[in-house]
Automatic annotation (TrEMBL):
<keyword id="KW-0732">Signal</keyword>
<protein>
    <submittedName>
        <fullName>Uncharacterized protein LOC111101296 isoform X2</fullName>
    </submittedName>
</protein>
<feature type="signal peptide">
    <location>
        <begin position="1"/>
        <end position="22"/>
    </location>
</feature>
<dbReference type="InterPro" id="IPR008979">
    <property type="entry name" value="Galactose-bd-like_sf"/>
</dbReference>
Length: 272
């Protein structure tokens, strides 16, 4: 290894340490569930903080039945702001490389954040489409600056043929899943020390820079700082405008936004 590459590796490790220690593991000792548990290898083992032994047959890792699909999730108890997710796969305490039998079961996995127990209701943080048995990292750190209550690990073998190196069936064999974020709702920044801007919808903002995911009715801008009579709903993907739309359609949009804030539209009720 050259001096330059060694220096880069050291800096990368230091940066990852800073990221980890800036946020709290909000999944630690929370309730967990998995599909097809084997014996007493319960889902809660994946969030118990223990990973000194990475064997499926010890008492620190989650293990499930072999199946066409595998799913595991942790309940964070509240809708929290998340920065990144770290997954430690089981290795059976063997070298992690192309010769480790377990690598083939993890290829193609996905991670979701959701406000319900259904992954389809949430957002996709990551889906593996490129790793091989030789390149899949362990542990793996997945950036996902969003908010949610459930973090869901999922894999499937339901649509053959599979890429080279993939198994024909899959399992959960997870030794630890760490979810780093803010345990206090409406906070962001290093050590979760800052409040989200006051006009962020439901006080939800990007955990690193404080930009709002959506704005309360009548505000727009990255931090919802601009008051406007035309912008009724602002999100990270689009802004809905009053100009140019039918009155019934716009009243429906207003009603949705008001309901998200715990309010109702009397005008909408009268006009429907």
């Amino acid at each position: 290894m050259t001096r330059c590459s060694a220096l880069f590796s050291c800096l990368l490790v230091e940066v990852m340490c800073l990221i980890v220690f800036s946020f709290e593991n909000v999944a630690l000792n929370k309730s967990a569930w998995q599909q097809d548990t084997v014996f007493n290898y319960a889902a809660e083992r994946g969030v118990d903080g223990r990973k000194s032994s990475l064997s499926r047959y010890g008492d620190e890792c989650v293990t499930s039945e072999y199946n066409a699909t595998s799913e595991w999730r942790v309940d964070l108890e509240h809708i929290l702001s998340i920065h990144h997710i770290s997954i430690q796969f089981a290795t059976d305490d063997k070298d992690w490389n192309n010769d480790n039998e377990l690598t083939k079961y993890f290829l193609g996995f996905s991670v979701y954040i959701s406000n319900t127990t259904e992954k389809e209701d949430g957002i996709l943080c990551f889906r593996d489409t490129t790793y091989t048995r030789a390149t899949i990292p362990n542990p793996i750190n997945i950036p996902c600056p969003h908010y949610g209550r459930y973090v869901i690990y999922y894999n499937n073998r339901t649509h053959p043929p599979y890429p080279e190196g993939y198994s024909d069936i899959t399992i959960n064999a997870l030794c630890e899943v760490e979810v780093y974020g803010c345990s206090d709702q409406g906070k962001f920044g290093e050590n979760c020390s800052m409040l989200c801007p006051p006009k962020c919808l439901k006080s939800r903002c990007d955990i690193t820079n404080g930009t709002c995911f959506e704005c309360t009715v009548g505000y727009l801008g990255p931090t919802c700082e601009s008051e406007s009579s035309t912008a009724w709903r602002n999100s990270s993907s689009s802004t809905t405008w009053m100009e140019g739309g039918s009155s019934t359609g716009w009243m429906d949009i207003i009603d949705i936004a008001l309901k998200e804030q715990g309010e109702t539209s009397n005008f909408l009720q009268k006009t429907k």
